[in-house]
Amino acid sequence: MEQNVFIAKDVTNNPAPLGLTGFGLTTMLLNLHNAGLFGLDTMIMGMGIMMGGLIQIIVGIMEWKKNNMFGQMAFTSYGAFWISLVFVWILPKMGLGDAPSSTAMGYYLGVWGVFTLGLWIATLKMSKTMIWLFGTVVVLFALLSLASFTGSHLIHTIAGIEGVICGASALYIAIATLLLETYGRKVLPLP
Q1: Do the domain assignments include residue 96?
Q2: Burial grade of 99 (CB within 10 A; 0-12, 13-18, 19 or more)
Q3: Angle at which helices 69-93 and 56-65 cross, to 10°
Q4: Which of 142, 140, 145, 177 is nearest to 160 (CA)?
Q5: For the purposes of burial, counting CB atoms within 10 Å of the CB of 64, is it exposed (0-12), middle (13-18) or buried (19 or more)?
Q6: pLDDT at position 9, please?
Q7: Which of 17, 61, 90, 185 has the fewest CB atoms within 10 Å, counting from its CB?
Q8: What's the domain count of the chain?
Q9: Percent of the chain topping pLDDT 90
């Protein structure tokens, strides 16, 4: 009996640049606020829900389809982080619970830092740009957690500046990858 063998080939695009764009843009905007350039408003919350949250969760699901466990965990988790952060801000304003204390926010940001440290360890088998990016995310969560625990405006401002660098790093990787795939060669370095 003759058997037909079908081999399915994944021809879908690389979703990572979109997820990195969502992470990068949202991280930069929130940290421009953290650096003291403007207040926390609906612009940041809208970006947090859509680009930081929804887009990254969609990308995480796309990474699952591509059998990329790291991409799935990172994008889906950070997408959920952004949505949960917006809920932390808006639920108390809607009368649906108390606003978290500074100590509670310190722990919230701290556990995300621990999770990110685990992801950073995984990046040690990846490119230098990914090691750099996730290293800056670890430092960002550590600074934001410390600022929450201590109430230090200075540490919060430093975290904001570091967060802009972190977000810009993600956006750089996204654009460099987009250009690599569009032009078929490295246009921007990706060490």
Answers
A1: yes
A2: exposed
A3: 160
A4: 140
A5: middle
A6: 77
A7: 185
A8: 1
A9: 93
In a domain, 142, yes or no: yes
Question: Is residue 84 one of the residues assigned to a domain?
Answer: yes
> Where on the phi/psi map is residue 42: left (φ > 0), alpha (ψ -120 to 50), or beta?
alpha
Transcribe 29-59 into DSSP letters.
Answer: HHHHHHTTSS---HHHHHHIIIIIIIIHHHH
Q: d(Cα 95, Cα 13) in Å, to the nearest integer?
A: 43
Instruction: Tell me which residue of 173, 107, 100 sits closest to 136, measured CA to CA.
Output: 173
Average pLDDT over the chain, rounded to whole?
A: 96
- 13 CB contacts (<8 Å, ≥6 apart)? 181
Residue 1 has pLDDT above 70, yes or no: no
pTM of the model: 0.92
Q: What is the pLDDT of residues 30-81, one digit of tens each?
A: 999 999 999 999 999 999 999 999 999 999 999 999 999 999 999 999 999 9
**Over the stretch 7-29, which tens digit does the pLDDT of each residue have?**
777 788 999 999 999 999 999 99
Range of the domain at 87: 16-183
